[in-house]
Amino acid sequence: MAYDAFKTMMKAYNLMKDGPLLHVSASLVAAVICTTCHMPFDVVLVVYQSAHSLGDSNHQLRSGPLTCANALLRESGPKVFFRGWTPAFVRLAPVCVFSFWLYEQLRRLVGIGYLD
After folding, report:
1. Where are the transmembrane segments (predicted)?
2. Count of domains observed in the chain
3. Residues 50, 72: contact at Cβ < 8 Å?
4. The dihedral of CA 18, 20, 24, 25: what is its sign?
5. Domain carrying residue 58
6. What secondary structure, in 3-state letters, does 45-95 show?
7. Distance from the CA of 16 to the CA of which of 26, 27, 35, 72 falls in 20 to 30 A?
């Protein structure tokens, strides 16, 4: 959705023409939004699962994902949910860019045209 929304907005305001540069730009925006949205879930899942195996003494980290998220928020503040954002983005961005760009180019190659 972020890819399509950004691409539509850029075309609507005549900021970029539909083409590979727009596809790469929209892909990067989609990667930023995807990384930002999934990081809190990823952080809670990693802490919750590792607390069991590491024998963490904080029972709240082992009680359940929601309790774990609440304990992380109380102990470290909201920034804790974005710990590791940069490595996650570096891993996700090339996948987004390549797959969206390839999808658009294949559509054009077979005569369907770019995604509107």
Report:
1. 21-41, 84-103
2. 1
3. no
4. negative
5. 18-109
6. HHHHHHHHHHCCCCHHHHCCHHHHHHHHHHHHCHHHHHCCHHHHHHHHHHH
7. 35
